Amino acid sequence: MRQHVQTAKNRLYLASLSMALLFVVSLLLGSVPAYAAGDDEAALAEQSKEAFLQLQTGKRIAGEERSYETPEQPTVYLTFDDGPSKLTDQVLDILDEKGVKATFFAIGVQAKEYPKQLKRIVDSGHALGNHTYNHVYNELYSDFQTFWDQVQKTENIFDELVGVRPQLVRAPGGTATNFDAYYYYLMDQAGYMMEDWNVDSGDSKRAGVPASEIWQTVKASPLSHEINILFHDGTGHDNTVKVLPQVIDYYRNLGYSFATLTTKVKPKQFGLSKIKWNRGMSLTHFTKLYGETKAYAAEHSQPGLVEETPAPPKEEPIKVIAMQSEEESTVPLNIQLPGQEGFAFDPTLYRMHANRIELPLRTLVEKIGGQVAWQPDTKTATAHYGIYDIAYHLQTRSMELFKLGQPLATYAMADMDMRNNQIIVPLRKTIDSLGGRIMSARIESDRREVALSLRPYYFYNEPADSILQNSLFALVN
């Protein structure tokens, strides 16, 4: 089978090369020769030429549209580069102890040296990504052919050792100043997904970065709904192992969950910037590379990927129809109250984010008949409704729930936000915390309606056990 595929690749390459030469001649002579190859080969050559001319402008070409899923709960994707090594088992022990899954971007030469660790990564349910074969920058970024060959070589090693061909690839040093539009386009044509990061732990700034410095770098990094954090499990990163439990506890206490990267997670990618390598690209060379990546995609239409172990089912989010994961609102949000007059939010007062409705705390609470007080010295907003109070602490990104002045629970809200001097809160979580519930929701492009059920004030003299039994306190961060 592999011999037949290789023969097909050779034929495709020769045909593509022939067509590329014909196009070069046509450009020089100002004429387009008649196709001597078959229709498929001619079409491939034409596609290659069109792509090449577009990429010459230096701008990326949008690849095939992918569908991504935004987690409802704030999520951290721990990623480890440059392994496996003698440290990888220690990292895996910590992850096992904490019940956390991570993603390992492994180097081919390291995988050959530490096959048992590579197998443990996969067998433990972690995700495996490709980090090229030898991590040598001046080889990888001198020409795409070298980068491509190293990715292929590493993938074959993974397949032989653990039976996995990852679609996720991380460029050594990241794509910034290393990748140009050609690199991105050809990797995309082959079906790969490039992964950078949005939090750098700083554990590889220099040799022997202290654990305390790594910790301070992580703690000072901005919080976002999805965090792809860069660590290293290669030789010399003992301090990364030391600080890892503290980092996991830090994000967990802020309300984050942990997951592996998959093709359903929108990748973090750096924007194109001026490359620091002296390299060029000719039409002839591009056509050859284009043929190789297309042949690979045809042969590996569904490369293997270790997926995260499915999490336990959680409360269903509001069903959203024809909505992107985050968008500014364009139509009013109508709130319906059974037996009462409802109200509406102007499109500028709310937004859709991570499959949920987010809006200003004060506006929401006051519209349902409650009050909100702001304490500027502690940056705390306290919402009061009936027998319930919710204290939102912006500095610690936490929320305290009280009933009749007595504390019930404290919850982390990692993605607590402030816009236009108002704390922005998720609708469902806030209504649940105030003893109500969302009965139904209809979110469409031209119609947005949510029906709430709120306990009237005169019911608050019921026994406390009855109130607790009939109210929703489960918060999904």
From TrEMBL:
SUPFAM superfamilies on file: Glycoside hydrolase/deacetylase
Signal peptide start-end: 1-36
Keyword Signal listed: yes
GO molecular function: hydrolase activity, acting on carbon-nitrogen (but not peptide) bonds
Gene3D superfamilies for this protein: Copper amine oxidase-like, N-terminal domain, Glycoside hydrolase/deacetylase
Listed Pfam families: Cu_amine_oxidN1 (PF07833), Polysacc_deac_1 (PF01522)
Membrane listed as a keyword: no
CDD domains tied to this protein: CE4_SmPgdA_like
One annotated GO biological process: carbohydrate metabolic process
Residues annotated as domain NodB homology: 74-259
Record keywords, A-Z: Signal
Record-given protein name: Polysaccharide deacetylase
